[in-house]
Amino acid sequence: xxxxxxxxxxxxxxxxxxxxxxxxxxxxxxxxxxxxxxxxxxxxxxxxxxxxxxxxxxxxxxxxxxxxxxxxxxxxxxxxxxxxxxxxxxxxxxxxxxxxxxxxxxxxxxxxxxxxxxxxxxxxxxxxxxxxxxxxxxxxxxxxxxxxxxxxxxxxxxxxxxxxxxxxxxxxxxxxxxxxxxxxxxxxxxxxxxxxxxxxxxxxxxxxxxxxxxxxxxxxxxxxxxxxxxxxxxxxxxxxxxxxxxxxxxxxxxxxxxxxxxxxxxxxxxxxxxxxxxxxxxxxxxxxxxxxxxxxxxxxxxxxxxxxxxxxxxxxxx
Length: 318
Description:
Blueprint: E1 20-27, H1 34-46, E2 53-58, H2 65-75, E3 84-86, E4 98-100, E5 103-105, E6 108-115, E7 119-126, E8 130-142, E9 145-149, E10 152-153, H3 154-162, E11 178-181, E12 189-193, E13 195-199, E14 204-207, E15 216-221, H4 224-241, E16 247-253, H5 254-260, H6 264-272, E17 281-286, E18 288-293, E19 298-302, E20 306-313
Parallel strand pairs: 2-3, 16-17
Antiparallel strand pairs: 1-6, 2-6, 3-18, 4-5, 7-20, 8-9, 8-15, 9-10, 9-14, 11-12, 11-15, 13-14, 16-20, 18-19
Helix pairs in contact: 1-2, 4-6
């Protein structure tokens, strides 16, 4: 991976001795269908046996990524490493695509299932974003559509924070995501949710994943060095469980690229420096990253993260 670029195709080829590769796809064209679609995709992957790892890619617009991931997770064995992302369209938010074989789709979730006892997968995810401002309570939300914060129209409150940048929504929303924070400790940040769309008439924000009424949120911001440090931390998490000769897949958020600007390659170099020289590295920018979260390493939908996976084979000893 030489660096970030537009209008380019980044390919990562994996050649396994014993690991079996299977692909599946399901229709995914609405928020309401997201959870069932994830579960169905998991069921299809299980038809070839319990996978050693799953790599899903899903449409980036008009879907509930959080519900999809939880549906997929519910169908798979709990210990299955699952890492992937939502397709992106840069700052345009027009249309996204997934690809399987020689077909290009706008409404299909696709996944690669990897099967076999010799596969070793390392995973890591970190952000580098910092929460700020008052803690707000989600008082009305339906799936990923956020209507009210502290019983006030969510879009109006959000625009008050953004000031002049509000006219650039939804793309400017990538610079100020929402952090889910702890009920007892508002400084403790959990998952991050990016703004994907706005409805000016209804006064609502559509996020990349669902928020439950009663959840606590704060705005977030970042600077370049914190994002680069976050990318390095994710790589170090992967290195702890990565085998020799592994290939590495990076999934970074479009919002991180907007913040880093001309320094975008520094994030990639920070990751590259963690792995041995010559490690194959490729990746893409997403509207949502699917990867481990918390001590139990169960996969969740992330936003504004650098999420990384490594793949290699280490034959089991007889």
